[in-house]
Amino acid sequence: MSKVKDCIEERPDYIICEKNGKKVTVRELQLEVLTIMDEIHRVCEKNNIKYALIAGSALGIVNYKGFIPWDDDIDMCIQRKDWNRFIDALNNDLNDNFYFQCFETDKRFNTINGPSMKIRKKNTYIKETNFLLKNRCKSGDGIFVDVIIYDNVCENKFIDEIYRTLIKMTVPFIVLFENLHINPIPFKKFTNWLSYRYSKKNENSSLTSQTISYPWLKINHEPVFLKKDVYPFKLYEFEGRKFYSYNNIETILKKWYGPNCLKKWDGKKWIETLPSEKRKPKHTVDLNLHGSEKFNEK
Description:
By secondary structure, the chain is α+β, with helices and mostly antiparallel strands. The chain has eight helices and 15 strands. The protein has helices at 26-46, 55-64, 83-93, 157-168, 171-179, 185-201, 227-230, 249-257; strands at residues 15-19, 22-25, 51-53, 75-79, 98-102, 117-121, 125-128, 144-153, 207-210, 224-226, 234-238, 241-245, 264-265, 270-271, 284-288. The radius of gyration is 19 Å and the shape is globular.
């Protein structure tokens, strides 16, 4: 009798885009994104920089020992204290098949668009589900791994919300200027400066969170965690290799996604708890894994 694996084994495929009978699936994208993550892991190990898979990528570790079948990206974090070293490491050691975009190296990068950095693969193309803020970086629109800074945050929730609200107040101005094709550098610098100062001010706090310069979270629903649950990062199995994630990964996931987010045993096998109608890729509109031109224009 074969041993039941400690993860969900059923992995249906999902289609991202299709033209003239040619389909591009989520799984095809995942396998290409995995090559980016392999390179990030290599660079971080070489330079003794700690990282962690977060959000849906961490949920995939627990439920699937890899990607959630409909998840069309990888999310990871770097601690604020390691951020500049991480940029230096990428500049010095990143393989030529990849490139990265962040505000520190390209002032056209959108600081409030979500991640603090995108690490992309050359000779690929992806169009994201984002109608407010387009990628203005000229280096490309390749498939990517999202990297976000993890900061120290204040234990006083009221003060924490004040700082987050200051960032939120810049959003209309950044969106307006970006869509007028005017680079709002002063506003971008302000969001970076404020998030950095806020993190430094709270170095002795017991709490951590993704940087407050990410403004798209509901008030009082920000993913703020105890540092002892996040750090130190641990190695976990992911798609046949090992990547880092949270120290107490299940505790973090239940706090972020709710107590029913983890796989469930039905008496015979592990099953997914998310309703089937919600299982669909959310971030990708168009995709080309074999060139930098748009798939739907080929």
